[in-house]
Design goal:
alpha+beta, 161 residues, OB fold (Dihydrolipoamide Acetyltransferase, E2P), elongated, 2 domains, five-stranded antiparallel sheet
């Protein structure tokens, strides 16, 4: 009586090969969409518990469409300087940078103005003016998650017998 032998099934090379390039592209897009905005979202969540302090604006951008602001603040007798407005990493539009997106509808402060900033008690040299969750980063993470789901679905379809 003949013996049964195990038959190994493999995915045809042309079917698997045709998904390598799109799969790699989707992986890069999903990593970019999850890591870059995800780090700013994590920073925003951490900075919610930071200590508030008054800061004096020391410089503002001289460019017409930039919202860069530098401010100085004092913690336990030591003065620190920062220029972080918020945690946005994406521009609101092509003409303005992420600092403008972080300011939202607030006017850009002028030199000499007093603003409220939040500093990290464990690292007082790190501060932010607006610790809110950045909407642009949440949008980027949603795109990254969508691409990751597409990638997993595509790979499951390719390798399914």
């Amino acid at each position: 009586m003949p013996r049964a032998t195990a038959v190994r099934r493999s995915v045809p090379l042309n079917r698997a090969g045709s998904t390598v390039l799109p799969g790699f592209a989707l992986l890069l897009i999903s990593l970019f969409g999850l890591v870059l905005p995800g780090s700013s979202v994590l920073n925003a969540i951490r900075s919610r518990d930071w200590t508030p302090v008054e800061a004096r604006v020391t410089a503002v951008s001289s460019l017409s469409r930039s919202c860069a602001v530098t401010y100085a603040y004092t913690v336990k007798g030591r003065t620190y300087q920062s220029d972080r407005i918020g945690w946005d990493v994406c521009d609101r539009n092509r003409d303005e940078g992420p600092d403008c997106a972080s300011l939202g509808d607030d006017a850009q402060p002028a030199v000499g103005d007093t603003i409220r900033v939040f500093y990290d008690p464990l690292n007082p040299g790190q501060a932010v003016h607006r610790p809110e969750l950045p909407g642009s980063s949440l949008f980027g993470m949603a795109w990254g998650l969508g691409f990751t789901v597409m990638l997993v679905f595509m790979l499951v379809q390719v390798w399914r017998p």
